Amino acid sequence: MNIKTLGGDNIEISLHFLSDIHHYVIFKYYSTLQCEQMKHLLILIFLAITFTSKAQVSIEPVFPTVDDTITVYFDATQGNQQLKDCNCTVYMHAGLITASSSGPNDWKYVQGNWGTDDPKVKMEKVNPNLYKLKYQIKSFYGVPSSEEVKSLAFVFRNVSGSKVGRASSGEDIFYPLSNSSSDLQIAIIKPDEPVKIVPLGTIFEMDVSANMNAHMRLVRNGITQIEISNATEIVYKDTLQAPGIYQYELTVDNGSQQIDTIFTRTVPHATFIHDLPPGAQLGCNSGPGGNLTFVLEAPGKQSVFLVGSLNYWTPLPEHQMNKTPDGRFFWLQIDSSGLGRELQYQYWLQEGLRIPDPLSRQVLDPSNDSYITAETYPGLPKYPAGKTSGLVTFYQLNDQYAWSSNNFIPPPSGNLVIYELLVRDFVMAHDYQTITDSIQYLKRLGVNAIELMPVNEFEGNISWGYNPSIHMAVDKYYGDIDKLKFLIDVCHQQGIAVIADVVFNHAFYQNPMVQMYWDKANNRPAMDNPWFNPVATHPYNVGYDFNHQSTSTQLYVTTVPKYWLENYRFDGFRFDLSKGFTQRNTPTDVAAWGAYEPARIQVLKNYRDSMLSVNPRAYAILEHFADNTEEKELSADGFLLWGNVTYAYQEAAMGFSGDLGQGYFKNRNWTKSGLVTYMESHDEERLMYKLMNFGNSAGSYNTKNLKTALERVALASVFFYTIPGPKMLWQFGELGYDYSINACGDGTVNNTCRTDPKPIRWDYLEVPERLKLYGVTAALIHLKTSHAEFESSSITSFLAQKFKYIRMDESGLKMLALGNFDVTTQSLTLPFPDDGWYYNYLGRDSIWGTSVPQNFTFAPGEYRLYLNKKFSNPYLSLSNKSVNQKSDLLIFPQPAASGEKLNIFNTEFQNKMVYAELYSLEGRKVLNEPYSATDGLLGLPLPPLKSGIYLLMIQCGTKTYSGKILVE
């Protein structure tokens, strides 16, 4: 950057900004200081630099250039200490940060094959915890001379990579390179960071080297402590004997260049003991008069400071937090007037730990925020680079959303049809706004609930979300808080409930409660961690296992859902891996893990009761899969539980034996219809993929054929939605999504790609056979959600054999569903519920049904759904075999111009009102309006659009037409 002095001279200042893992700083200043004002400016700039690893990595020579041969030393006793006393071979994983790097995560010229015995990066052991490796920088990395190298990047590991040496914050380690030996440079070996909280009696040590002779002066709180001339090193020690702030200003001056920097040490006073203010909850509480009250649970800790933009990221005595008499909570009340519209803050603990608020509403992430675009999150706050490290809490003051839907009543639980949705893989823009724009698509499908896979803050950006870091914070990769609220608001306006998938079985290392009580030696939560087990008590655990018998965990897990219910108006939650809410120690015994457990049931009931105190209609959905006795009891208490019948439906659809009977709650001896069944979920293989790759065949009938496979998904759907009880479908299942759950970006299928992004195929709407499946699915969903008989009625069924049926005999509705799942023609004899006319809801035929058994002979894959009442089915044109082809529409001009009129002709449009929808290939609805067509010609005014291909759907009476337009 260039800075203009008061005298008009241009001064070039090159800063090597380091994260908290660097142990030294190089600062270059190419001019003569001409005024005291510039000196103070340099101090302010230098305050933006932080470094804390305390010589975790040291290099000889101290001021290397890219042409040098260096020796890298790694001290395993520093940083996160995962390799301390490991008695193992240590390998260096190394890269470069160059001028072309987009950020600290964008390593270039990476060396070292992770998890292998790679001789190129194997380090020599100097002593039990010190390792070294010597190499010439340019040749080792293979970096061309034309590329500017800014710093070296490291992590260290054992051979398998199960233990990784990083900074104490868990971040990577960087060491800047010098690009010139003629400029004054300094290396700060000690202290370990510029700003720090330390205990009384701490010895402050300073050891700073310069690359040339210079005048060095150190001032503490305005009083000179040491001053030497013609020196290349200054060493100093000071014992901090009283509480307060100690500020050390170091000046290094060679006559033409000067470097200034400041170190600050805060010694806490004895923590004041006071009761929590009335009504104060965990996290940040807004109160009258602009007061903010911060509450942190931290039993056993000695002192905590509130540090952030309110105090220039310096732990001030007036921001040392109070402690409650029981020692469990720390709290502080401040006046927020004058803070502006936002507050960034952390809690700083005496042992050097800096954490975001565990009850953050949003956080800033220095490693991942740079990959979030302005289109996804306009006005994303900047991370306070150089002032701190790790996640930072971002709090919007006076945040008020004006809700439009104030009287929404969610559907009865037995009536639910839930659309499970991963924001990242549903719309190309991966944001709430685009889903909001496309809500009419889901409305037409008929679903009355959306279940969002985890949208709370998770590690990284590209994730399913089951690696949570902070449960109450909204992850910014999908958009800002108000956009999420707007999505929920619009859904409620359309009669659609919104359910959040939440993960309270575990958390990952970024979680501040994990870090607060951490066992570095064993790389796991410490024994005294109030929330987490050091070792998981059950199988299949990932991350760090919550102890749900702990009162601290119970307080946390009741606080977060209540906040989301109150502030986001979610209609309920799906609790991931709820069977893991146990302290019964069965780490490898799957059967014992799922056995009936009263303590687990009680914990879950307590969580649900807390939710109901906010919203008596809130759904509590469990991914439980425990003993049926336990699930039956939970269902009877009002819980909904996932019912995985994927395998049975896959086998049946493929033409093999598949018993669908476990999809009916009464077949499990349950008294309430709390079984949320699904043919597909985020966790299960896609039905179409199974059909297309593993389906059965006989003669010319082959379930692997695309059209046949789609018809068999429709067949399975008939025997899915007509079984009473709540249902769930996975996104794009209504269009026959046929990519494997393990699909990789290169087109292969591999288990390692399970959670990778998947292709987003809104263009499936262009395929008539897929549109037909959409029509069948929509017709079935609308039938189910419109008739209470499908909530919990009794049925008789034959679901184990290949020719299946379901019979419902209710006063309001009588039904007979028939389907041949075999790959050959089959017959079945059975009666209707009673005598009378029955109408095929998915066709145009009718039949006189009798209570006397009748014979039915069906071709392979054939199905019918007979009802004793004739219902309107607006999707019949899609579900009927004569699907409208795109050629039915004459569209001109092509390509079309953005903002101009598009002409669409079809003889069916004669003087009729039609309904037009236009979608981008990313899934964003850009047009949704009724129009009048004259003499079959529809003049469709296009809104301003970006260049690209768009999908057109037109509803005319009971028929739906589709087409494609190109906009330039």
Protein model, in words:
The chain has 968 residues and is an alpha+beta fold. It has 17 helices and 58 strands. The strands form 15 sheets. The chain has an eight-stranded parallel barrel with strand order 28-29-32-37-38-39-40-43. Strands 13, 14, 15, 16, 17 and 18 form a six-stranded mixed β-sheet that branches. Strands 44-45-46-51-48-49 form a six-stranded antiparallel β-sheet, covered by helices on one side. Helix 8 (551-568) packs parallel to helix 10. It starts with a strand and ends with a strand.
Distance from first to last alpha carbon: 41 Å
**Low-confidence blocks of residues:** 1-54, 881-887
Oligomer: single chain
- Determine the strand fraction and express it as a percent band: 25-35%
Q: Which CATH top level class of the largest domain fits?
A: Alpha Beta
Largest sheet: 8 strands, parallel, barrel
Give me the CATH fold name of the largest domain: TIM Barrel
Strand order of the largest sheet: 28-29-32-37-38-39-40-43
State the fourth-level CATH superfamily of the largest domain: Glycosidases
Mass-distribution shape: elongated
Secondary structure tally: strands: 58
Our count of helices gives 17
Radius of gyration in whole Å, from Cα?
33 Å
Helix content: 10-25%
**Secondary-structure arrangement, i.e. CATH architecture of the largest domain:** Alpha-Beta Barrel
Number of domains: 6
What is the average of the pLDDT values? 89
Structural class: alpha+beta
